[in-house]
Amino acid sequence: MALFVMGIDFGSTTGKAVILDGAGKVVGSSVASKGSVSDEGVQDAIAMALEQAGINIADVARTVSTGYGRRMLEIADASYTEITCHARGAVAMVPGARLVIDIGGQDSKVIAIDDNGLVAQFAMNDRCAAGTGKFLETLARAVQVPLNDMGPLAMTAKETLTISSMCATFAETEVISLLAEGHGKPDVLGAVHAAIASRTVGLVARVGSRTPMVMTGGVAQNVAAVHYIEKALGVTLLIPLNPQTAGAYGAALIALDEVSTARAAEETDPQREVDVPPVSCTAPRRARVRAEEHLLQRREKSPAL
Ligand code: ADP
Description:
- This protein is of the alpha/beta class and 305 residues long.
- 44% of the residues lie in helices and 18% in strands.
- The chain has helices at 39-53, 82-93, 133-143, 147-154, 168-180, 185-207, 223-233, 246-268, 283-301; strands at residues 4-10, 15-21, 26-32, 60-66, 78-79, 99-103, 108-113, 119-125, 213-216, 237-238.
- A five-stranded mixed β-sheet has the order 3-2-1-4-5.
- A hairpin with a 4-residue loop joins β1 and β2.
């Protein structure tokens, strides 16, 4: 019977699902948006990916979840932190990557990758909207420009303006003042993207700049966000084909590893009953995973963050 595994990223803004065949080829991939931490959104993403792969959920041998709502997914056999899954997915998408910048709907993270392609260090902003997709969404609304258009419009900016506040609420007030002073929308949006870039520079500084540098997450689809971050860091960012599904892809690769390990053990010792552990991580990685869990649990306990 053909082997399929699934990775699900239950994000704060969108649900993502990636299905791999036994050779690690992507046979289904989807992104669905139905509002904040939406179970409906993630279920839609799963249904779309299954349809694209032409299989049923019963055909999936193992499912790994990640993301903001990863523990809410009963369908998942195991769950891993966003840091682990995003790093895994980004490095598989861009082999040789040494730094991953992931900007999603509610958080932004920078992950340093070691020589073996594993997480060396990470820094995360999940305390406020500054430097996240939420910041861009709030300010797109203030400028009355659709989210998808804000990046291309910002790229036509002529005048350099500054938004000094990192807080989305105060930045919104600044944006309204700039518009009231007669500045054009492209220039104001240029300043909005420069503000998100300066926040990202701060996160990169916390782990140390390294190249090649990859950008993932939904915000990697915003051309101006990429441009202003590149300008602020003085580097060229590598953007994978589907940057928003990096976490789900990483989760699917982990699911495939686990199935392969279990099968290899079965072949070596057919008498042995192999049970893939619900959540497995190697000993040297345990301390880091605990730190990630701590960060993420703090966010989950504090809905305002
Ligand atoms: P999460 O995993 O937290 O749900 P995502 O990685 O899916 O977040 O990113 C969601 C964010 O991506 C949105 O807040 C939005 O700012 C941005 N985004 C998604 N698609 C686009 C697009 N086509 N153009 C500009 N920004 C986008």
